Amino acid sequence: MCDICMKHGAGGKWYLNARHYSEEIAAKYNLREFLLEQYKNFEQIPVRKVAGVSPAGLGYKLRIPIIGRLIKRTAERLLSSNRAPKNPFRPEGHIGQVVPLEDAIAILEHCAAEPIIQKNCMCRYMSRGEKEACCINFGVMSEIIDRLPRFIPEKEKYHLSRQEAIDRFKEHNRKGYIGTIWFGPFPYINNLCSCATPECAGIRPRLDFGIHSIYKAEYVAVVDSVRCRGCLECVASCQFGAIQLLPRDGGVRIDAERCFGCGVCRHVCASQAIALAPRDEIPALQGCY
Amino acid sequence: MGFKGGRTKIRIDYSLCGDTVDPRSCCRCLRVCAPAVFQLHQSFGVRQANAFDPQSWRITPLWPSLCTRCLKCVEACPKGAIRVSG
Question: What's the ipTM?
């Protein structure tokens, strides 16, 4: 269990704690107004200065001794903030975790608050200029998107039933997108995204800059070397570069330190040689999220 | 161009892209860039940006440290607005 689960999971995984999806929390923190303000100005939030530091050229800034470390710590503190959300112009309390298909289905079946919608992925729009409907939103967030037409997919249906949302998510997951669940803002969960690197603004800080912006999943992929036929499809599907070819015996090895446990590699494996194991059960990975 | 190593500088001439042309209508540099260095966004410094105003949209090379200096963006830009130096 990761530390968010320990604090806010009520004995299980934090994203399966239905309280985080409730109207009660949305009303308590006045999230209708907060999120409307945030999403009206969404495309300028990633480029805004935080504590006087602009994110432009962040990679170079992080290399400056001492100051770099301070910037990193400030960013991490902001993202994993547990305080009541106050400033809609900052990504306060916007921390997420990778979820495999099974957990995402459990979220959509049992936890997600109605109405459920799909909206255009803004990360992909901002870094590629293309609109693709692959974020699934719940509750208050859906009401807000109704009022902001640029997030609404043009050609596809956008209000989804639970089953449609599950089918949609499955489709993305099979395509190779990583499922992620996000607090937005803490303690309200409203985003189930299907992300891809390097476009995703949530995964990028962690992979490229070492800022802890997303937790690895509660699982890790393990390969059954007897079943593996060495077709290497999984190597191509891994977005984290965690799967390595072993040229001598024609199989693959999964680097458990790099694996985020998204489970996308399972879908391309023709011989079903890859399975997910709970991260906690592997002694070397305990506490590595 | 002579790269010396060290920091990559990517400059966009906003008189060619952004001020008069709506960057949302082109976005070629965004698509060709493998590490997705560029970011399309609404201009900063404005408290309440109006998403319907074309002039509020900009493309900024936000993550130059990830640039591989392949110069595909320079080739792709129809206005020749991008300059990369090191």
Answer: 0.88
Joined together, the tokens standing for residue A12 give 């299980």
d(CA A97, CA A279): 13
pLDDT digits 0-9 by tens, A275-286: 999 999 999 998
A29: tokens are 């923190």
- Single-letter amino acid, residue B74: V
How far apart are alpha carbons A269 and A184 in whole angstroms? 34
Please report residues of B whose CB lies closer than 8 A to that of A58.
62-63, 65
Considering only CB atoms, which chain A residues are within 8 Å of B46? 44
Task: Tell if the CB–CB gap between B44 and A47 is shorter than 8 Å.
Answer: yes
* A195 three-state secondary structure: strand
From the candidates B24, B37, B39, which should be mutated to test the interface with A, based on the most A CB atoms within 10 A?
B39
Minimal Cβ distance to B24: which of A49, A127, A129:
A129
Distance CA A107, CA A137 (A): 12
Using the beta-carbon criterion (under 8 Å), do A59 and B64 form an inter-chain contact? yes
Q: Is the peptide bond before B23 cis (omega within 30 degrees of 0)?
A: no
Tokens of A11: 């004995």
Give B50→chain A minimum CA distance, Å.
8
pLDDT digits (tens, 9 = 90+) for A116-132: 999 999 999 999 999 99
pTM, entire model:
0.90
